[in-house]
Amino acid sequence: MGNVIASAAVSLDGFVADTTDAVGPLFDWYNNGTVEVYGTDQGRPFHVSQASADYLNSTWPNIGACVIGRHLFDITNGWHGVPAVGDHVFVVTHEPPTGWPFPDAPFTFVDGIEEAIAQAKAFAGDRDVSLTGGNLAGQALAADLVDEIAYNLIPVVFGTGIPFFGTYPGPQRLLDNPTIVQGDRVTHLHYRVSREEQDGRR
Questions:
Q1: Measured between alpha carbons, how far is 86 from 151 in angstroms, rounded to an integer?
Q2: What angle do CA 138, 114, 121 make, to 5 degrees?
Q3: Contact between residue 30 and residue 37 where contact means Cβ atoms under 8 Å apart
Q4: Which CATH number fits domain 4-18+27-192: 3.40.50.2300, 3.40.430.10, 3.40.50.300, 3.40.50.150?
Q5: Single pTM value for the model
Q6: DSSP assignment of 42-83, as one string?
Q7: Domain layout of the chain by residue ranges
Q8: Whose CA is closest to 9, among 39, 20, 22?
Q9: At 108, which helix (H) or strand (E)?
Q10: How many other C-beta atoms are found inside a 10 Å radius of the C-beta of residue 36?
C-alpha cells in the first residue's frame, strides 16, 4: 500500500491561497525554469529548475490517485476532466455535480474524507495518494490518515488566506526531519508524519 501525501504550494506564513482563492506567486515556480516536466496532462508542460524537476519526477509518477475538495473541483472545472497528477480523482462532496460536461472522466464523487481516501488507496494500490492542502488536509491529519506532507514553500508572506491545514482541530503532530530540495523560488520540504507517541496523545 502506498502513502497518503498532503501536498500544496504554500506561503511562508502558511497559506495555499488568499481569501479570494487567488494564488499570487505560489505557482510561479512551475514556469520559471528550462526543464520540462509533465503531470497527467501531456498537453500541459511545466518548466521548472533542474532541482524541482528532479524532485517532481521522483514523486509524481508514484501517484496513483488524488483526493480533492468540491471547492477546488469547481474552481478548476475538474481540470476539464484530466487529473493534474495520477490516474483518478476522488472529489469529496455532499452533492455531486449535475451536467458536468465530462461524464466519462476518471472522477468519482464521494461523501466524506475518510471514504474518499479509502477508495483512493484501494484504486492506487501500491502507488501513492495525493491529498490537496486546505481543510481536507487538516481533516485527514486529525483522523491520522496522512503519511507524508509535501510542503512546497514559496518566499512570500500573504498575511491572511486559506491555511495549508485549514481549521485543523488537533491533536499536535510531530513530523520527522524533512527531505529538503532547493529549487528556484521554491523550497520543497518533504516530511513523514511521525508515528511515535506524542505527549501521550495519538
A1: 18
A2: 105
A3: no
A4: 3.40.430.10
A5: 0.93
A6: TT-EEEE-HHHHHHHHHHGGGEEEEEEEHHHHHHHGGGGG--
A7: 4-18+27-192
A8: 22
A9: strand 107-110
A10: 10
Distance CA(73)–CA(70), nearest Å, equals 5
Cell of 201: 496523545
Q: Which residues of 123-148 are buried (b: 16+ CB within 10 A; e: fewer)?
A: bbeebbbbbbbbbbbbbbbbeebbbb
Cβ atoms of residues 157 and 13 within 8 Å:
yes
- Helices 135-142 and 113-124 cross at an angle (nearest 10°) of 80
Q: What is the pLDDT of residues 38-50, one digit of tens each?
A: 999 998 999 999 9
Q: How many residues in the chain? A: 202
When pLDDT is cut at 50, 70 and 90, the band that residue 202 belongs to is very low
**Distance separating alpha carbons of residues 123 and 90, to the nearest angstrom:** 10
Give the contacts of 185 (CB within 8 A, at least 6 positions apart): 25, 28, 29, 32, 154, 155
Measured CA to CA, the distance from residue 29 to residue 24 in angstroms comes to 11
Classify each residue of 79-112 as buried b or exposed e, where b means 16 or more C-beta atoms within 10 Å of its C-beta. Answer: bebbbbbbebbbbbbeeebeeeeeeebbbbbbee
